[in-house]
Structures are given as structure tokens and as C-alpha cells.
Sequence to fold (111 residues):
Amino acid sequence: EVQLQASGGGLVQPGGSLTLSCAASGFTFSTATMMWHRQAPGNRLEWVSSVNSAGSTSYIGSVKGRFTIARDNAKNTLYLQMNSLKREDSATYYCMTSGTRGQGTQVTVSS
Fold:
């Protein structure tokens, strides 16, 4: 059974930083393309970033240069380093693979 558990969210001021983690199990993590999505209240689920098995990364335009996705295959863990956070980054963040979404972590950017 695929299990994805995100953590690391919280309340941060605009301009601040957070690092999200996602512990994965139940599948071969090292060969999987991993993604972060987010959903703000009243909004659709939005893709944020992906990293494939080769380590190639991609980002939605609104986070380029501010967010960094990374993976640690030895720990079966996915990360999202978020810098220069903006109020519009507030959402529940989910890690996903092959259509499976795990439990999310809430990020609130507010002064």
C-alpha cells in the first residue's frame, strides 16, 4: 500500500522559509516521479513541483526561484524547501505519486 505522509508545515511570516518533508513507503521510491501539489480553500488542487527518478526537476512559474524540490532515495523522503514565502503560497501541501495523494500539511503565510 502506497503511503505518503507530509510534514513540516506551519505559520510563517511573508518572506520567511519552511521545509516540507514527505515520508514515502509501499512502493519503489527511487524509481518514482514525485510531486508536490497544494490546495488553498476554495481552489482547485494545483501542481507545484516534480522530480523524476533521474533528479530532473520542474516547477510552476509562481514558485520558480523560490522553491526547491529534492529527494533522498536512501531515506525514501521527498522535500520542498520554500523560501521568500508569499501570502498566496498559503495552502495545504500534498506529496503525490502515480495519482496517490497522501495526508497534507498546512502552510499559512501571514503577518
Notes: The CA atoms of residues 67 and 90 lie 14 Å apart. The radius of gyration is 13 Å. The longest strand covers residues 18-25.
